[in-house]
Amino acid sequence: MASPKKFAAVTGAGTGIGRAVALAFLKDGYRVALAGRRKEMLEQTVAEAGAAGKNALVVPTDVGKVDAVQLLFANVKREFGRLDVLFNNAGSGATAPLEDLTFEQWRGVVDVNFNGMFFCAQEAFRIMKDQDPRGGRIINNGSISAYAPRPNSIAYTATKHGVTGITRTISLDGRKYDIACGQIDVGNAITPLTERMAKGVMQANGTVAPEPRMDVQHVGNAVLFMANLPLDVNVQFMTIMATKMPFVGRG
Question: How confident is the model at residue 198 (pLDDT cuts 50, 70, 90)?
């Protein structure tokens, strides 16, 4: 069990990967700030945690708005006194042919996946830099799309490539403050957002085919492993995916 004095924040904690990671942290003894746009979904995560939910702090947050992010981390600092881990997870997507993607769709994805990722990392960095004991860990949710695009996914793919740049830079800039930063790149975890993968999605050659998925709990366990390492050890990048998912090689 982790020390009860370890404190984490998880964005996008109301559903999917964020919920799985928040549950893994809570069940391991962390106190966790759960952030997401929908309070009722965050409260469902707390309920699912059972007795461990007593260590949860629900903070409804739109990470695409800098003032909301600042309020989230002000709450973390006030309630916890420190922050040991940020799982920087909230994300959104827009599927459309490149030529048909609207500016509003583009901006919506950039606001959450790129700007929101930076806003949260910056606020966590500020807390970790100044706290005593100093330091902490930021884990960014990239994606297999940080390496290879799907058809009709330019906004999502571009922002996820950008997340990798954020990860690398935090890793460098955080060294002098004992702040470690890593990235987990997830493929086809079983969540409501990937139901379409099981039914069939477009492949690079234009055909439509179903894709294997994996239990999202494995992602929660993987992030927990990264989080529980000592700060002089870092998983810089981890890819976790269904073994037979089309990614490696030609399909």
Answer: confident
**pLDDT (tens digit per residue) in 16-26:** 999 999 999 99
Instruction: Work out the angle between the directed axes of helices 217-227 and 16-27 (0-180°, nearest 10).
Output: 50
Which residues share a beta bridge with 33? 9, 57
| Residue 115 token pair | 């700007």
Rounded Cα gap, residues 48 and 50, in angstroms: 5
Judge contact between 155 and 106, C-beta under 8 A: yes
186: three-class secondary structure by DSSP: strand
**CA-to-CA distance for 229 and 84, rounded, in angstroms?**
11
Catalytic residues, which ones? 156
User: Taking Cα atoms as reference points, which of 73, 119, 88, 19 lies closest to residue 226?
Assistant: 88
pTM: 0.93
Q: By three-state DSSP, how is residue 179 classified? A: strand
Sort strands 208-209 and 201-202 into parallel, antiparallel or unpaired. Answer: antiparallel
CB atoms within 10 A of CB 199: 10
| Cα 170 from Cα 4, distance rounded (Å) | 26
Give the C-alpha separation, 108 to 14, whole Å.
19
